[in-house]
Fold each of these.
Amino acid sequence: MMNKKAQMGNQITIFVFFFLLMLVAAGIVIGVFMFYGKPYDFRYVDAGVESYVIKQCILENSIDWSDIDDFYSKCDLDKKNFQNEITLKIVENGKEVVKWKDVVGCELASKNIKYPKCVYQNFTIEDSQGIRYYELLVGSNQNSRRVET
Amino acid sequence: MNKKGGVSQTLQNNVIFLVLAIFFFVILLVFVNSQMNGAKVWEDYYAKEITKLINTAKPGDQITINVQKGTVAAKRNGLELNAEKLFIFNDVNKSVCVKFSVGRMTCYNYFNKVNVANQKLILGGLENYLYFEIKEGK
């Protein structure tokens, strides 16, 4: 005759079995999301590209810094997107000529992933107008968006 | 103890265990395979790479980019390989949206004041390419 008490103990182990299965599943799911789920962080490249574009624009054009629209017009930049997504600071001969968004975020980028990624460069122009020294700090914090179709 | 009953009980338990384990691993395999398709990853990648090209382009430029990986993912998800349905350029918002799966698409803004026109997919051969032209913007 079967020992019913022993059968009861045997059936309780099914919960242990399911718990182990869930542990294994959780590990695999977490691993897959960590590997495939990480987005492509393009912000540093984005800042680098914009820094290059702005530098080329300054080299090729004479910009009236008192009129910001002159900067957008001569550099062929879309004002709305640029101001929304880009951190910018331009210094000409030690004087700040353009600045928007808080550039302090650039220095904190290594502390927190939410701060923008920035690119700094400096260059000198020597022409008929004299020698001008520029410092350019461009940052991007743009992330891709998932949009319903 | 009834030994015959014990043996059949053990067998039954093991069969149930095996069936559940196989079922569980099949589900996991399907999940991992769907992630490996990676349509979302490729959408993100191509939206940003195309934006990089547009940001450095001038009116009159003609651009061709290899989109083999993305079109493979789109085809696996049952989408038609049509440039205007997979790569959506919005000249008003200055954004590029890429769609390789049913449902949502991935968008990214560009900053160059240009328009994009005449996009087409060049299919066949070894790889697929996206071609588009840069026009003067408003």
Amino acid sequence: MAEALEDPRKTEFRDQLSAALDSAGFDVDDARTPIPYLAGTGLKGPGIKSDVLCVDSTGKRHLYFLRLDASKPLPGWLINNITASYEMTDVEVHVAVIDETVQIRASCGAVGVGLVKVNDDNTIEALLNYAPPSQTSVHDQLLTAVKDARRRLEKKVELNLGQLQKRFDDIASVTAGMPTQMKDKYRSGIEEESLSWQEWLADMSERLDASSTTDDLTVLENLVAEIVAKEIP
Amino acid sequence: MSGSTAQMTTVAPESITPNPKNPRLYFNDERLDQLRTSLQEVGVLVPLIVYEDPKASGRYVLMDGERRWRCALDLGFDSVPVNIIPSPSSVENLLRMFNIHSVREEWSLIAIALSLRELIAVTGEDREGRLADETGLTRSTVRRAKRLLTLPDSELRLIQEEAHLDRNEQVHREDLYLEVERAASVLRTAIPEISAAYTKPQIVRQFVRKREEGTLNAVTDFREVGKLAKAATDKLVEEPVLVEAAKRLIDDVSATPPQVYEEVAARAVEQSELARRVELLAESLAGYQGTDTLTAALTRQLRRLRKQIDRLIGAKDSG
């Protein structure tokens, strides 16, 4: 059931990485029990649940997160987990990819997460070591600001989708008596507008993710301005 | 829905099963990132909608909230808020799918088609207008979905298995199959020998192979098949030539529709179109017969045309 609806590429990648780690002498934990968050993270859920979890001979736990598309920035939820891991003992977090890109390297380097590449022959190449940054206060400030911006973004989109849903629910009464073609056009219009908002949400979310791996608050400020300025049609 | 009213509670995500009536197979993993972040930071604010699994005590079937459910599993949530509703009837279950996937959760055409097929099987209603009214879909979406349903299950499965991928990663795209379906239909209708020699599924498979093996430039290349079929209907090309060309198009994976059309029919079609324009020109000129009010510009053009015609026809006549 855990893999129900899961992207089969991820399932396959998970199997490949697990096999590679097993061959390398790690003890792979198939249960992937979440590592409990320490108090004060503010995150929902019991803890960090990785895609692959293994333990080395010293008892240190290695948490791996699989990224199928290495051209995208690390997402917010993963950065939150990486940040939460800084205070944990005997825990290291790594991102695993099939293809290395400049973007993934920069993104991982900025937050101090390890980066590994899994090759076709099931060997693992370590590209970056897990190295939590020494100064976390600026990073924490930035992450808080990103979270606030994300809430504003979600609220705006939710407001609009809610209005669109109401319009959709009223279609029968609004379009009663209209010719079929006009009815369809009205309906398609609502669907297209909804899609447009969801695509904007995905795009802005990705840009917020990218902004949280820089130290430049200006980037974030500009994104917030864009969110505020987005007009409701 | 009949029975007792809804009940709000929390349950373990592992106790929930995807709805068997939802034809979605997979989620694109990274398209869920935004939702994962939101759930991790604020939690599941909108309860999932489930009903008790009549076949398994203590388990629930998901009605609404697949993405939230998948993300909750990924994040390791112990529990999620749910609204337990009475078990729906088969038809209610299906119709609810369409309602849920109208505004907030986009559904691929293949998912729509497969759900529509179930609905048609259960209700017996397959009229485009009625289906559109019942499901909230536009008529053109119903029409396109029904066209997909004329394809073999093996082809539908190929589309379904790639539905979660980004468009540029998909080989078996819905728009490819819509073009192929139309091409196969018009070819069989226009050339009876082709209809006798090949079933529609056979032609579809062969055409899709062109995409699988990288022969095509664009899925819209199959529109040239329509032009080939029209050349047959208009008898612009000799039938044996067309039959041969159509067979080559079907049997040879490296033969493309633009190529075959160009080789066999393009010239004839172009000349047919030209003949029509000449006819129109002749009709227009007939109006000036017996007058001497031609402008100098028109007279000049007509003299040039006459010379061109003499060269063309003269060559033909002496040949």
